[in-house]
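Issue 218. Parser rejects a valid record. Input:
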Amino acid sequence: MVLFVGTSLTAGLGLEPDSAYPMLIQQKIDSAGLPFQVVDAGVSGETSSGLLDRLDWLLRGNFRVMVLETGANDGLRGIPPSTLRSNLETILDRVAAKRPDARVLLVQMEALPNLGPAYASAFHNVYPTVAKEKGVTLLPFLLTDVAGHRELNQADGVHPNYVGERIVADHVWSEIRPVLDSTAQSVPRAR
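Output the parser choked on:
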């Protein structure tokens, strides 16, 4: 199983459920003949603190790969980057303790510029610092080539539309495909 944990960006807010990027990744997995089932555990409005509250429940799943997207709502609320960092560290420690065999990919998130460049920079730096410290793979910013492009987003200017969501899925797929290929080699095939 590939567990996608995240916010409304992962849940596909405003889109049909099968059009959220994790479900588009499932289509790519199926086309590639890889032995994985995607679970989309995105929750709209969730902060990194909220994720901590439901993490034990998520860790009950039998996932081989976790794609972790959190923090977007922390940035919208102006939560201190130090709090985000602490939460990410705790999340990753708990995942490692419960599922030491799982591969974790942390998705880079960015803060909107309205809180100023110092906040945006500190927020940005949390992700590569934590990924390096915890030995997890850092994926590029989830909304690369989509954020700020009106024609690729819904009316709120934040959530991708159907075209934007396909771009997000293509970017994520290019990053996780090698991880899935290597992980698939250790997954027993059904006979």
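Fixed in the parser; the record now loads. The longest strand covers residues 2-6.
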